[in-house]
Amino acid sequence: MKKVLSILSTIMLLGSMVAPSLAIAKSASYNPDPIAQEADSSFLSQPALEAIQNGKVEFSVKGENSSEGEQSEASKSVTSGDVGLVKPWVVSNNLTGKYSLKNFTLKGVGKYGEIWVANNLKFPAGDPRNDAGVANVTDAQVNYLLNEFDTKMYEQEVAFFGAPAERTGENSLVDPELYADGSGRVVILVDNILDENYYNPNYPSYIAGYFSSTISDFTDRNVMTIDSLDWTNRTGPNAKRPFMYEGTFAHEFQHLLHHDSDSAEENFINEGLSDFAQFLVGYGHADSHINFIMENLKNSLTLWEDQSDLQILGDYGIAYLFQLYLYEQFGQSFIQSEFKNQLQGIDSINAVLKEVGSDRDFNAVYQDFILAVLLDGKYQGDSKTYNFESINLTPNIEAAVGSETFAPAWGTDLKVITPDKKMGIKQIIS
Predict the structure, then answer these.
(1) Residue 304, SS3?
(2) Is 317 left (phi over 0), alpha (psi -120 to 50) or beta?
(3) Which residue in 279, 171, 152 sits closest to 217, CA to CA?
(4) Do residues 324 and 279 lie in contact, with contact meaning Cβ atoms separated by under 8 Å?
(5) Which of 329, 328, 326 is nearest to 338 (CA)?
(6) Which of 320, 153, 144 is nearest to 238 (CA)?
(7) Alpha-carbon dihedral sign for residues 245, 247, 252, 253
(8) What pLDDT is attached to residue 12?
(9) Alpha-carbon dihedral of residues 124, 129, 130, 133, nearest 10 degrees?
(10) Rounded (to 5) percent helix, strand, coil in the chain
């Protein structure tokens, strides 16, 4: 018992540490509608022990305050009767790349998930968004999202992709007694995520959610984190941004599942499948990603984060459309095999194409895919190959042709050819 109190005391003290000293520009205004994007996956997927060795951990870990070989006794699973329980969970600072502990309160317990909301959802002092209350989350919103996760996301994604690995908390690197839970539920943390938008109220984008295998390693639980910004206008079918957070839940859950299936998968497949998961469970297409790629067609399919900050929306857009194209061309079994295949990137696509008996390789499929994006059913010949059935695309071809930038690897340059001035016919080719 003394050991438990000692560890909890250490956790509470370190969990209350202030955020890193970052320059915060005070502003009387704020951006009310930042674009959602994801966190930097490079540090969110690093092994926990590596994070410790690199000085990225701001709390004590197993072994620092306990005797070697001492085993913890598993605690019972939380129930709806435990709503109101406060517990520290591991969070990340996406600017510094560091991990710390923060207190969360249990707000809802479902069949497959449990939602914990951070006790402090405020922005830095002086931020106008604090008075506006844009980061507040209500119990009704929590219950709605938990029901969506239980009744739509979990069962459909597990049936399609496969179940997550069991993590019971007993091998936690922080405190096995604190996190031990045999329910198998997914822990969903709702937090005001520490990103550029947290420190700068006028920043154009924010991290809507993330899955960190590092955090799952620290706690030995299946954990994903969702931002608390503006749930009022970003949940439900009639919101300004319909189903945005529902889609984020579904998106991050695919990442959680994919980590157990193939943790080394390349971003363009992993992220494309996460956007596909949103479509799969009924939340529609990732509109902001698609709209961006329609206006910025010269974007690599395979290179990730190779351009500016907001340009990454194009990475998501083209990656999703590629998965949607594969789904429509080859069916759901192709996507399921791709998810499970232990090769990565282009090699994985080629392996599954061979598995399904296709006479096309990645290069051929890519060319057909790009033509489908540009034509989307407008070609009078092969309407199946150069077409999307589940979405109507409106690519801004003129903007792409007029752009002076060159397309990167596995991107497409567009040229205009006028074969006969008298006829005035223009043909656009890739």
Answers:
(1) coil
(2) alpha
(3) 171
(4) yes
(5) 326
(6) 144
(7) positive
(8) 36
(9) -150
(10) 40, 15, 45
- Conformational region of residue 306, where left means phi above 0, alpha means psi within -120 to 50, and beta covers everything else: alpha
Residue 216 in contact with residue 124, Cβ under 8 Å?
no
Domain boundaries, the chain: 1-18+33-261, 274-430
- Listed in sequence order, the DSSP H helices in 224-311 are 244-261, 267-280, 287-295
The tokens for 77 are 């699973």
pLDDT score of 44: 83
Look up residue 231 and give its two tokens.
């749930």
Name the DSSP letter for residue 259: H
Tokens of 120: 């402090």
pTM score, whole prediction: 0.89
Q: What is the pLDDT of residue 299?
A: 94
Q: What is the pLDDT of residue 375?
A: 92
Q: Report the 10 Å Cβ neighbour count for 345.
A: 15
Contact status, residue 283 vs residue 8, Cβ threshold 8 Å: no
Q: What is the structure's pLDDT at 214?
A: 96
Q: Cβ of 416: how many Cβ atoms within 10 Å? A: 12
**pLDDT the model gives residue 73:** 44
**In which element (H, E) is residue 104 found?**
strand 98-109
Residue 2 tokens read as 């003394």
Task: Tell me what pLDDT residue 379 has.
Answer: 75
For position 76, what pLDDT does the model report? 78
CB 157 within 8 A of CB 253: yes
For position 62, what pLDDT does the model report? 75
Tell me if 362 sits within 8 A of 346, measured CB to CB. Answer: yes
Instruction: Give the tokens for residue 109.
Output: 């317990």
Check if the beta carbon of residue 233 is closer than 8 Å to that of residue 163: no
Coil, strand or helix at 62:
coil
Residues of the chain short of pLDDT 70, as ranges, are: 1-27, 63-75, 420-430
* Cα(268)–Cα(409) distance, integer angstroms: 13
- CB-based contact 312:37 (threshold 8 Å): yes
> What span, in angstroms and rounded, lies between the C-alpha atoms of 103 and 211?
19
Which tokens sit at 30?
Answer: 């704020």
